[in-house]
Amino acid sequence: MSDSSTSDLFSYLKEKANRSSELRSQDASDAAADASDNARNEAADDAESASDDPSNQLNFEDPTVGERLRDASKDTLNSADFGIIRLDDEGIVQFFNAYESNLSGVDPDEALGQNYFNELAPCSNNRVFYGRFRDGLKNGGMDEYFTYTFTYKMRPTLVDVHLYRDDAGNNWIMVRKR
């Protein structure tokens, strides 16, 4: 091979290596930018999800939890670490969350449409529990905390109960095992 051929080949290979290096640098920059964009988008999505559902972290101890239940999604209600039951004014179950289902052994679908005090938890049909519910309805407001022992269809289970009627007229029973 002549010196000029060798020189041309060497120049060609050097130019190709430079272009290849530039492309790799550009690909790395693009990948880093994409990763950064993806991270920002995921963080924004997480923040948006949190702001869409202000009740996504329900806490039994939170004094505002009763009002927050009304706007909470079904998923949020079901992921709470305490029982949540919504009743109409006659005591008919309209919602029964997963925690309460696990505690009571009653499937949520089975609970819907049943009278809580007569059919689902007749051990609560007394002055201590149902009496407070009835008084809250009569007075137009309910925000009662008390300790109770459930005994129906389960071994005696000590719980904290929070009865609450929200501003929209929804009746809530919140139950946390002690």
From TrEMBL:
- Enumerate the Pfam families for this protein: PAS
Q: Name one GO biological process term.
A: regulation of DNA-templated transcription
Q: Where is the composition biased (Basic and acidic residues)?
A: 17-27
**Residues in domain PAS?**
69-140
Q: Identify the stretch(es) annotated as Disordered.
A: 17-65
Q: Domain of life of the organism in this record?
A: Bacteria
- Which SUPFAM superfamilies would you find in this protein's record? PYP-like sensor domain (PAS domain) (SSF55785)
In its UniProt entry, what is this protein called? Phosphonate transporter
Q: What is the lineage of its organism?
A: Bacteria, Pseudomonadati, Rhodothermota, Rhodothermia, Rhodothermales
